[in-house]
Amino acid sequence: VVIVNPSLVFGPGRSGENTTRIVELVWKGFVRAYPAGATSVVDVEDVVSGMLLAAEKGVTGRRYLLGGENLSWDDILGALADAMGRPRPRIRLAPFVLSAVGLVSRILSAPRSGGAGLDRESARIASERIRYDSSRARAELGWSSRPFSETAARIAAHYTR
Fold it and tell me: What is the three-state SS of 77-146?
């Protein structure tokens, strides 16, 4: 077994699912604030490439992290907003504020969607600084990833066609 662990995957996708929910909020101009944390983001096409390389060249029992860029949420949401011609978020949410927003969102969305709103755990994670080191995938598999600005432009093109 060869294990592939992608970071937060972005790309054109099905409406309302995973990171597409974030993209749709930016597209609609609803994102005015951003979490204080950071995370690693990767393009879905780069994940597919990494999986194919892992199947071909991966070492049995090894784990390969596929993380494109380690970016702040300000940078992630800003890149999406810029690519889509939407306003960049300007307000940095402190972790305790985001947690409270998560709790209120969960309560308000529960009757309509079975509790599908932002939950407190997601709010906590968005306030952390999560980094991926993909050097093993780059060295052993020859994997590479595109800058997130290219991914954001590709997503924006999907929405503007």
Answer: HHHHHHHHCCCCCCEEECHHHHHHHHHHHHHHHHHHHCCCCCCHHHHHHHCCECCCCCHHHHHHHCCCCC
Residues 6-53: pLDDT tens digits?
999 999 888 888 899 899 999 999 999 999 999 999 999 999 999 999
Pick the closest to residue 59 from 150, 140, 149, 151 (CA basis): 140
Sites in the chain below the pLDDT cut of 50: 111, 113-116
Look up residue 118 and give its two tokens: 């932002």
Question: Which among 70, 68, 94, 79 is positioned nearest to 31, based on CA atoms?
Answer: 79
pLDDT of residue 69: 96
